[in-house]
Every structure is written in C-alpha cells, then in structure tokens.
Write a structure and sequence with these properties.
The protein has 476 residues and is an alpha/beta fold. The protein has 2 domains: 244 residues, no CATH class; 171 residues, Rossmann fold (3-Layer(aba) Sandwich). The protein is built from 15 helices and 13 strands. The strands form 4 sheets. A 5-stranded parallel beta sheet has the order 11-10-9-12-13, sandwiched between helices. It has a 4-stranded parallel beta sheet with strand order 3-2-1-7. A two-stranded parallel sheet has the order 4-5. The termini are far apart. InterPro entries: GDP-Fuc_O-FucTrfase. Keywords: Carbohydrate metabolism, Fucose metabolism, Membrane, Transferase, Transmembrane, Transmembrane helix.
Amino acid sequence: MYFRGRTLWGILCLFSVFTLSSLNYFYELHKTVRDYIPGYRVNELRNDSQVSSTIPSHLSLPLQPGPVTAKFRDALLPDHKYITTFPDAGWTNDVMNTAHLLVLSFLTRRTPILPPFHPSHVGREAGIIPFSDVFDIDRLSRAMNIPILEWHQIKNTSDEEHYANPATRGYYGGEKEELGCWTVWPSQRADGASPRGRSSQTLSLDISWTPVPFVPYPRTPGIDWSITALANLGYSSAPLPDKIPWPNSLGNQIDPDDQLSCFDFIYYIRVDTGNPWWDESGMFWNTVGTHMHWTPLINSIARNILNDLLDISSPPVVPLTQEPTTPMPQYIAIHARRGDFARVCAPYNREDCLPSVAILNRRVSEIRLELEDKGFRNTDALKVVLLTDEPHTSESFWEDATSLGWLWVDHERYRTEELYGKWFPMLVDACLQSSAVGFVGTEGSTMSNIARRRVIDWSGGAGTMVRWGNPTADNH
C-alpha cells in the first residue's frame, strides 16, 4: 500500500513537472512567434544595438539618440550621409536588389538603410517583414565591416488604423514626408515606363523621381546599368546633367536628396565585365551575398524539420531563439520550380517542357560523383530532399519521386505557417536548399542560383542547374 501511494505520488510529480515544462515551452514559443510578427517592433530605441557588447564601436548605428518618431529626418545625423532603395519584384530579386544597395553604400561611403521585404509571392495578407527577420543583420554588419540600418529604426510607420490588418501592420503610418530620389527604371525600359518604387508608399514617403540620365552614364550590354555610374550620383561633387524631376503627389518637383541618396528598383545593375552574381569571381556575391546568413529562428526551424525528415534518432530540439550548435546533417536538396515556369512552355506541353523526375535524378547522380571527387564520403547514401511547388495532384511526378526514396517537407504537418506566419514555408524551404552539401536547381530561377552559390560557399559542396523548355533541353 505504501509502495502504491509512493508510486502514485511520483506519477503526480512527474505529471506536474511535465505540465509546467510544457507551459513554459509554449510560453517561450509564443514569445518567439510574437517577436516575429511583422510590424511588432514599433517603438524601439534607435541606438539599441549601440549598447550591445557584440557590436564594435565603429559599427555603432549613426543615429540621433532617442525613440523612433513618425519622421525619418529626426533620426539622421546632420553630418552623415545615407543611401536606400525601394525594391519592387519577387522576393529573391528583392534580396539581390538589397545586396546591390549594400555594394552602392561601399562605393558612395554612405550608411545603407535596408528596406523591408514585400510579400509579392506569398500573398499580401502575409504582411511586410524587416530584412533582419530573415537575415542575421549583425553578422552581415560584422562581415562587411559597416554599420547597417533598417527603416523601422529611423521611422515609426505603425498606427492603429493599419495595425489591425496583417497586410499593412507596422507600415503605411507615420508622417507623410516628401523626398527626392533617382529612378533607374524608366531609362532602362526606354518605353515610357513610370518609376518602379511603389514600396516607398509603405514608408509614407511622397517621392519626386528624377530619371537617371542616359548620358554620360551609359548602360552595360542589355538593360543593366553600370553600378559605378549609379555610385557617381551619390556624390554631390560629381558633375550632373540637367535634372527634370517627376512631380510627387503634391505636384512638387524635388531634386534628388543629398543626405539620403535613394533609388527605385536597382535589380538590373552590373559591373563592367562578367556576371557579378554567378561568376566565381562575381563582386556582388563575394562582397555581400555570401555574408547574408539566415536568422537563428529560420535556421532552427529548418534544422528541426530536417532532423524529423531524416529520422535522426533522438534529435536534439533546437531552441528557436538560438543558432544550432551541431553540424547540419548532410543531404542533397532539389529545387524544382515548376508552377509559374509552366506558363511559358508553349509550344510544348507541360510534361515535355519541365524536367521529369528521371532528369532530376540524373543530375543528382552527377552531384554524388562531384561530391565524392571533393572528398565527401558515402555520397551514395545521402538522402534527397525535394523542394518544389509541384501540386500533389500531379500523381505520376510524386509517385516517381517516392519510388526513389526522396523526401519532401509537408509544411501543413509541421504547422509552419500556423506557428510562424505565411512567409515562413518559403523561407524555411530557401534555408533547406542552401544548407545541403549537394544541390540541383532550376535554370532561370534566381532562388535556385543563389541556393547553389550558398551550398558551394557555405559547405564546400556541389551544385548544378537543370535546363528546361523542351524534351532535349537538359541533354549533355
């Protein structure tokens, strides 16, 4: 009887401990998710990172002390110069646009102010998120050896009217401020196009745009502008042609601002020779792109999903606010972009245009051999994780993938969107693509191209791209 009572008492104690631990886990999870809701950080101090012992003094943020106000001018130091841009494309292209801004900040000796990301591919209701919710901005700042600002650190754009709607939460508020900026897009298109900087509206900016002139700033071949030519516009001492600004909504024509140099869409810019992203010596990739690492949150979510996918025995659950401390398990990732690419398959049908599972698997076999040549062991045993937008109604595609033992991420099962928001299935997929040791991507996809560069740089792995468009496109 005594033994039974002691056993019952022990069970009750264990149950209490488990219950308290669970409550604490969900409380910590709630805090983590809350901290990553777009627009949550609204009244932070401008110079909060200046008190961090991990930030060297020369990387302290060049801002006026005090809370963020509804006007960005209140935050800027009078003797300091800044630069920003307003991307307006798909997410990966906006990442590259932001990297171009960081290169321009080097060339102009200005402090970059990074714009937030807009949900062009994940639905407007996903909301707008800061750069630092996706990439480790402190790590990037240290790697580039420059201070890096974000718009939420210089202007409070949150208000009650827009906070209720997830699509506008944290943005569209604040005081409407006039600003003069350069626009690259009309000169690139040369077809009467308007400036491409709609994202500036989320920051309550009323911009008067001045077209970047054709002469004396010629383009490199194609529609890409020389980054050196754009950098010259960031110097007030540089000789400039006559400027004819487009009026803003109030009808005011404002010359480009000297203190805050700003551009609309700067995705289409290059150096004088070669491809600055995809060439091995590419300047944009080697100076900025390779240093844009995921936040601990995204890394942790991806790591926990991967542990489950690979059925690692007793995997340690990675705390969501910490960087994983053990090496990432080795695997091969495939990014098979198919949904929107299928729309340009004509005159071929979908099956003859897009790469089949057999074609993808041939590339996987080549990656295994390349990894073996690079010194990786047991490459035949590496699991394959397929990341694709192919609908599960495509039964033959998924049957072929299953027959090869390939794995894929079921975000509904992992409740990724429910727990973290609509952005995170895509962000976690991008993290899983880049964390592999081998990668097979889709030709023409910037998301695939960047993942390939990350795999090669970050893990010393191997990457390749599958060509598509007709039945023999990937013959080699």
